[in-house]
Amino acid sequence: MSSDVTADVVVVGAGIVGCAIARALAGTHLTVTLVEARDDVGDGTSKANTALLHTGFDATPDTLESRLVARGYDLLGAYAEQTGIPVERTGAMLVAWTEEEADALPGLMVKAERNGYRDCGLVQTEEIYRRVPDLGPGALAGLTVPGESIICTWTTNLALATDAVARGAILLRGARVTGATVGPEHTTLHTTRGDVRGRWVINAAGLGADLLDAEFGHQRFTVTPRRGELLVFDKLARPMVPVIVLAVPSSRGKGVLVSPTIYGNVMVGPTSENLTDRTATGTSESGFEFLVSKGRALMPALFDEEITATYAGLRAASDHDDYLIDVDAAARYLLVGGIRSTGLTSGMAVAEYVTGLLAEAGVDVTERDGLPPPPRMPNIGEVGVRPYQDAERVADDPEYGRIVCFCERVSAGEIRDAFASPIPPADLDGLRRRTRVMNGRCQGFYCGAHTAQLLAAGTAR
Ligand SMILES: Cc1cc2nc3c(=O)[nH]c(=O)nc-3n(C[C@H](O)[C@H](O)[C@H](O)COP(=O)(O)OP(=O)(O)OC[C@H]3O[C@@H](n4cnc5c(N)ncnc54)[C@H](O)[C@@H]3O)c2cc1C
Question: Which is one GO molecular function term here (predicted)?
Answer without folding.
Answer: glycerol-3-phosphate dehydrogenase (quinone) activity
